[in-house]
Structures are given as structure tokens and as C-alpha cells.
Specification:
The structure holds 2 protein chains of 2 kinds.
Chain A lengths: L1 E10 L3 E11 L4 E6 L5 H8 L7 E6 L2 E2 L5 H11 E4 L11 H12 L3 H14 L15 H13 L5 E5 L7 H16 L3 E6 L2 H4 L4 E6 L2 E7 L1
Parallel strand pairs in A: 3-8, 3-9, 6-7, 7-8
Antiparallel strand pairs in A: 1-2, 1-4, 4-5, 9-10
Helix pairs in contact in A: 3-4, 3-5, 4-5, 5-6
Chain B lengths: L1 H16 L1 H36 L2 E7 L5 H8 L4 E5 L5 H6 L3 H9 L7 E6 L5 E5 L21 E5 H7 L6 E5 L4 E10 L4 H17 L5 E7 L4 H14 L2 E2 L1 H41 L1 H9 L4 H42 L10 H20 L5 H6 L1
Parallel strand pairs in B: 5-7
Antiparallel strand pairs in B: 1-8, 1-9, 2-8, 3-4, 3-6, 6-7
The chains are: A alpha/beta, B alpha+beta.
Chain lengths: 221, 384
Amino acid sequence: MIECYDIIKQYGKDCKALDGISEDIKDGEFLAIIGESGSGKSTFLNILGMIDTKDSGAIMFDGINYDDLSKKEAAQFRNQKLGYIFQNFYLEPEYTVYKNVEIPLLIAGYSEKQRKVMIENTLKKVQMKHKINQLAKNLSGGEKQRVCIARALVNEPEVILADEPCGNLDSQNTQNILQILKQLNKEGKTIIMVTHSKSDAAIADRCITFKDGKIMNEKTV
Amino acid sequence: MKKLFNLLILAAYEFKLNKKLFAVNVVICGMLFGVMLAMAGLACNIPKEIQDEILNSEFGEIQISNIDYKDIEYITKLPLEIEIVAYEMDWSMFEESLNEKQKEINANIDIDTSLNFVYYFSDDTVEISMINENLISGEKWSKEDNEVQEINPLWIEESLAQSMGLNVGDLVRFSNTDCNVDFYVKGIYRDFEHSLAASYVSVKLYGTLICEQGKSIMIRARCNTSPYTFLTTIHSLKKDYFIVDSWGNNIYAMFLLIAFVGICAGLLLLITLSVVVDFIHIYLNLRQKFWAINKALGLTDDNRRFICSFISFFVILLSYGIGILLSKGLSWYFTEYIKTLFDFMDLSLNLTIGQSIMILVCSLLFGFVILWNKKIDINSDIKG
């Protein structure tokens, strides 16, 4: 589904964040990327999610080369094909849960009726429907992350990119979030999760380890 | 279309969320717009009022001894319509200056100041038809004791003088059926506008009569050109010919004030727009992360610009609305003040709808251009 060829990303003259990464990610796969801080795993995820740019190499998504997409097409691609889960949630604290989840649908251009149905269904999936009218700032960390997942899911993207989704959560919430991700994977979503925790990575089908911008180790769980 | 509507919903969310910031923005910019519009009203309307006001107004005076033939020639070339009028042409005074004999002669002549009439040249009976104002008499002239006594000094148009073979100093006798009148050719004028020439002659006569008394005559100006030309012409006249009276000085001071007010209004417009845009930038900086996240969720730069432009347009429109209301009050105050100060009766300082719309469109365009350049970088803004 996603094919990466020799991805290089460099900050400044000496700092290579990614040093020739090549990787194939299959449709429906749950891939965990682990590594120490500064190993380049988040940079790789950001480049896959078109949030960051690469210096060289190529990425193909279902035969579509990222380099061939215009800015507008890239934005549309991010909106429709990719769902992003941030470690810091990045919810708008003064917006309600409904409005936070609604944003990708507003961008995509869905009607109010469609939006309502899609938001309610997605929130039900992450067990947050009862908090639909609450302000995001009043939610706990676990709840915020579930809303963040709902926002990533609401457009029904093919791939979920999760950057340390449990990084700011306690163990109970971590388990809940991992279960949700596992469930989504079972439903057919391709999930790429960056984490520094080996135990979190254990839930994935496959795990690759980054070190100094290179893939050091790959194992199927 | 549906997407645009959805973006407007997002703009509404943002407006509601940041209502306090925008309220402060609207109040401050509304006040600035109000003062600016009132000043623009002053700068736009006062020159017109002045121009209307100075039509047929007397704004200067000149000592009679200062004006000469060349001066009149100069004045006729000015871009202003200027009439030199011997206002209080005092015929009784003129008559008093005649001796008894001339009075009798004068009494026998049907001097009609409004109609054309005919005199006959006594020697070769050339019929001369002329307008009465061109025939001015009144100074003493006598042949007795070889002393020159001017009986009826005459100013005559150049071509006519040539056709009659007359020169300055010649004696002529005009006759009609009732009487003969002797004239002394005092001057020959060129082919000027008749009224000006007549005025000139009147002026000369009047000056001859009253110069010793140190009196002056009034100059009437009609401003049929731009205020700028009017100003520069007045300045030139003031420098070369006459002392502008208090009314003229008022006009001059008013124009300077208007120029100052116009510059202030322009500066205020720029300040207002920059405050509007600064507030939008404050908003954007506060919400940089929000827009960066939305960009990560698929919002394009154009979408963001559309939303921010819509918000800023809304803020500008609200500010402008408040500004219009405020400017009405200020304009009323300015109107009353200026009416009292400059004695303008029918003064209105409100901007026209066209002028108001033009300023609004300028404001919107300014806001749009400034906002268009604002950049949001997803990666650095989210991380930063």
C-alpha cells in the first residue's frame, strides 16, 4: 500500500534524521515504529503523513507518488486518505467534542446531516458519544486521545498515523487506546504507530526499530 | 459551494470563540473609522463649500493707484474670473468736481448708464455707436490761459480710436440732436473684455476722483476653477497686487486646514487599516497552532485565507458600521462648529454613499492583501 524508497531527511549539514529509509507497508497492516528519542521515527511518520517534507527518495501510496501531488491535492489527500493521531492530542480546548471531530468533515465539504451521522457513529466507536457536547478542555487525557482518534477516523481514511498515541496517558488509558487501535486494524484500517514503548509496540503485526535515522531491526510479532 | 459554506461555518466557530478579541478590535477600529470618516467628510466637503461660498464673494481690495493697464491685462489672464468694480461709483461726487459750466453741459446730455446711444463727431459727422460705460467724463479741462482743463475725459477702445484717427490728448466733440459734448481723449484701451475695460475706465475715473482721499476699490473674484488653482492665484495676487482681507485670509486658512485634515484623514485610514490587520495578525498568531493542525487535517492555505479574510471582512464591516454611526455625530459637531466659525449657512459634512463605499472597498482590499501573505507551516507550528 505504501512504498518508501531511500528516504533521506537532513537538518542542517551534519544531522541526518532519516538516512535512506526504504520500507513497504501493506494494506491492513498494523506497523509499530520504535526507537529512542531523535532516532527519526516521528520524522518518518510526519513525512508519510505529508506534514513534513523529505530531501530525497520517493513515497508511493497505492501507486500515487507524493511528489506528483500539488499542494491542494496533498491537502485533499491528507484529508481523505490519512488520519493523524497526535501525542499531544491537539484538540481545540474551547471547542466541544462535536466541533473538534467535525473539522475534517467541514474541510471535506460534507453536509450538516452527513456530518452529524458520521460524528455520532465515530464517537460511538471510541465510546465518547456521551461527551459529545462537552468542551475538549474538560476531558481527561484518555478521553482527549479518544476524541483525537475519532477526529482521525471520522473521514474514514485508509491509513491511521499515530505519533506516540499513548505517550501522555496512564496505563489504563494506554490499554484502552491500544485496544481501539487494534479494533480499527481488525476492521481493515492500516495503522502506523510510532512509540518508544516496546510493550505498546507488541500489539502491532510488525515492528521496526529506528536508530540514527536507519532501520536497525525488523520483526514480525 | 458546499465546501465554501462549511468553511464559513468554521469561520463562525472561530469568530464566536475569539469574540472578545474581535470585540476590542471592532470598538477600537470603529472609533478610528469614525474619526477618519468625519475628517474625510471635512476634507471632501469643505473645499466644495468654500468654492460655493466664494462665488460672487469679495475677498480682497486694492489701492487704486496700484492698478494699471498692464495689471488689467495680467488679471484677465488669471485662471479666476475676476471683475474689478468701482463699487460705490459716486456720481454726485463726480458732479461736485465739475464747475458750474460743465454741470450745465452735463445736464443737457442724456447720460443713460444702461442704454447704448449715439454721438456724432462734429467735424466729419462720423457716427459713433458706443456703450455708455465707455464714455466717462468729469475732470476739469480748460483752454483758458493756456491751461489745460479737462472737460470730458474719454477712454476709447483702440480699434475705434484708430478708425477715428484719435490719439491720447486729442480733443473731440460728440454731438447729438440736443447738444454737443467736448471730450479730451484720456486713454485708449485694447480689445479687452468689455466689462473689464469698462471697469478699468471706471476704476481710473474713480481713482482720479478719490485717490487723494486714499480710498480703495474692491475686487470681486469668482472661483470657477479648482481650489488649488484658486489658492495659488490668490497667493500670486496677494503677493503682487493687493492685501487679502480677513475673508480672503479665512479662505486661505481654511484651505490649509483642509489640506491638513485631508492628510490626517489619509493617515488615520492607514492607521485604522493597520490596526485591523494587526488585530487579525494577533488572532492568527494566537491561533497559529489551530490552523497548523487544520492544515494537517487537510485544510489548504487558500481555505485558511478564505476563512481569515472572511473574519477580517466581517470585523472591518462591523468596525465600519460603528465608524459610520460615530462619524455622523462627529460630522454634526464639526458642521455646527464650522458654521459658526466661517459663517457657512448650508453646510453638510457627511460623505456621499459613493465615497463611503470607496473607502470601505479600499479597507477590504487592504486587509485582503495583507492577510494573503501570512504563512502557516504545519510542521514547525505544531512542534513550535
